[in-house]
From TrEMBL:
Designated gene of the protein: iolG
Protein name per UniProt: Inositol 2-dehydrogenase
Single biological process term from Gene Ontology: inositol catabolic process
UniProt lineage: Bacteria, Bacillati, Actinomycetota, Actinomycetes, Pseudonocardiales
Subunit record text: Homotetramer.
InterPro entries in the cross-refs: Gfo-Idh-MocA_inositol_DH, Gfo/Idh/MocA-like_OxRdtase_C, Gfo/Idh/MocA-like_OxRdtase_N, MI/DCI_dehydrogenase, NAD(P)-bd_dom_sf
Biological source species: Amycolatopsis alkalitolerans
Length: 337
């Protein structure tokens, strides 16, 4: 069965996902798109033989759309996800699920009331080969009980519109989800340290930041977020356990030995670094719709990430260790993070 897909938001990642759903993933067809920039929507639609519809709501209720992909700006996500649930359609929403914990909770409640899983959140690192291998090692007891985790999330440069809270809301949100998933544990507190800022940033930005998280079982995590590191898009993660450590591999590339040097390339952006993960993420999403059983990160994960993100932003401003207060996890979402 071909899954007919409508895409809301035809910007950078919207176009990338449309390319993927059209040319990489089997069993999917993009039948409708929309964007507040109608010209852009029309151009993108013409490129893949889809229709450009006036609004997101039109896409959601369209008879030729079985499932919706939301790739518009973050603050618009919750409204579209709620409308898709209301229409009884599957919806893949890029991160964040919602920009407030209250909106994320409304989505959790609406999905639970609908009685079946309809929502998947775009936490693509769960589909990265390296992270999957790390999760397998931890799950099989390969390093004993985890005690510590050291992470770094570096981007080459951030635009002027990027502000200090976005280091959490837009960037660290990936680690927030990954930590919960890798450790099968819940984050219970957050703290943020402010090192001296780089001169290569816009004045208003605190960059880098060091975030410290603690999980329910007592694992301590340090995360460096540095979005003007200049040299590339670099994602690091090492978990330290009682009997060993496991480290995320750098993406496979050749090592060049020449002129007295040993060199390899560093990725320059998320598109390149996580290309294979995005491919797998959407392929598995489409396959799970065909099976009628969503398996990827869902509304509860989006809600938990939103609450932890709020606590981290509070910690950035207050300098305090801020406790994370999640609602009780409904049985509907199973027992684990
Ligand atoms: N998983 C990842 O690593 C990753 C990477 C990049 C972006 N993202 C997320 O994807 C989303 C989009 O990011 P982007 O980089 O493509 O941004 P973008 O600005 O390039 O594209 C967003 C598009 O949405 C359109 N839009 C805005 N509001 C709309 C609305 N109400 N209805 C319809 N269209 C609307 C804009 O006109 C624009 O074309 C963000 O939430 C971002 O955090 C995730
Ligand atoms: O929207 C992007 C994207 O999520 C990237 O994966 C992250 O590294 C960036 O910091 C963020 O701005």
């Amino acid at each position: 069965m071909t899954v007919h897909i409508g895409v809301i938001g035809t910007g950078m990642i919207g176009q990338d996902h449309i390319r993927r759903l059209t040319g990489v993933v089997t069993g999917a067809e993009v039948t409708a798109v929309t964007d507040v920039d109608a010209r852009r929507a029309k151009e993108v639609a013409a490129g893949v033989g889809a229709r450009a519809l006036p609004t997101g709501q039109d896409v959601i209720v369209d008879a030729l759309v079985d499932a919706v992909v939301v790739t518009s700006w973050g603050p618009t996500h919750a409204e579209y996800v709620l409308a898709a649930i209301e229409a009884g359609k599957y919806v893949f929403c890029e991160k964040p699920l919602a920009t407030t914990a209250e909106d994320a909770l409304r989505i959790v409640e609406a999905e639970e009331a609908a009685g079946r899983r309809l929502v998947q959140v775009g936490f693509m690192r769960r589909y990265d080969q390296g992270y999957r291998a790390m999760k397998r090692v931890i799950g099989e007891g390969g390093i004993g009980s985890p005690l510590l985790m050291h992470c770094a999330h570096r981007n080459p440069a951030a635009p002027e519109s990027y502000h200090s809270e976005m280091a959490t809301q837009d960037t660290a949100i990936h680690e927030i989800d990954t930590i919960r998933w890798l450790l099968d544990d819940e984050i219970v507190s957050a703290q943020v340290l402010r090192p001296r800022s780089t001169s290569k940033r816009f004045e208003h930005l605190q960059d880098p930041q060091i975030m410290l998280f603690e999980t329910a079982s007592g694992v301590r995590i340090d995360l460096e977020v540095f979005v003007n590191c200049q040299y590339g898009y670099d994602i690091q993660c090492e978990t330290v356990g009682e009997t060993g450590t496991v480290r995320l591999p750098d993406p496979a590339d050749v090592w060049l030995r020449t002129a007295g040097q040993l060199r390899t390339e560093v990725a320059q952006g998320w598109k390149e670094r996580f290309a294979a993960a995005f491919d797998r993420e959407l392929a598995e999403w489409v396959a799970s719709i065909q099976d009628g059983r969503l398996a990827g990160p869902g509304s509860w994960d989006g809600y938990a990430a939103a609450v932890i993100s709020d606590a981290t932003v509070d910690a950035l401003h207050s300098g305090r260790v801020v406790p994370v207060r999640l609602k009780d996890r409904p049985a509907f979402y199973g027992g684990r993070p």
